[in-house]
Write a structure and sequence with these properties.
CATH class of chain A: Mainly Alpha
Number of domains of chain A: 1
Order of helices and strands of chain A: HHEHHEE
Number of strands of chain A: 3
Distance between the termini of chain A: 21 Å
Strand order of the largest sheet of chain A: 1-3-2
Strand content of chain A: 15-25%
CATH architecture of chain A: Orthogonal Bundle
Helix content of chain A: 40-55%
Shape of chain A: globular
Largest interface: A-B, 22 and 22 residues
Oligomer: homodimer
Chain lengths: ~90, ~90
Amino acid sequence: MNEDKDVIFKALADPTRRLILDELSEKNELTLYELTARLVMKHNLSISRQAIAKHLAVLEDAGLVNSMRKGKYRVLLFNNKPLKNLLESWID
Amino acid sequence: MNEDKDVIFKALADPTRRLILDELSEKNELTLYELTARLVMKHNLSISRQAIAKHLAVLEDAGLVNSMRKGKYRVLLFNNKPLKNLLESWID
DNA sequence: TTGACATGCAACTAATTGGTTGCTTATACT
DNA sequence: AGTATAAGCAACCAATTAGTTGCATGTCAA
């Protein structure tokens, strides 16, 4: 309901989390390590793996990221469904 | 540029600010007092005028609300332009 | 011009949050 | 079995922030 919206908007409020969505929307099925490496290298981000893991927890909670265990790895999937019609009520 | 986006997303992250946008998108040219009264009454919000004023400053900073002085009053106007295409890069 | 009303500003507080460090668990590979 | 790699968990810290209270400014109307 409306709390879903709140969780989504709050998830989008952080620039690092938006970068994560950018990366995942460009290339799905990244692992946590791959994602961290990409963020650090492509965007000169200095941030730890644990910090990224926390951001991912927030994004998963909002339904914007799903993940599957694949052996040793956890693989990340972007899900844009919650974003559709999110701003609808304000745009005509 | 990208900082604009950040300011906009952060502005949208607060539920009270989203309620303010709801009210203003429904009825433009409210004054601060009218807006406060509406929020308190329609949504059972217990919040002071000053708190609303702070939220409005954030929304104005993001370009989502404009205001004009009209004599004794300040009149508030909703502006949805910054919201258009905000999520575009993630939705196909 | 004086009082009432609408708004503006500043200092303070409590809660939230993004980040770190350190340790543990789980899986793969030789 | 033993080591290296990927991830999970928990406690702590610093900065941000939503909210409050108190006071100042500006405008209208009698």
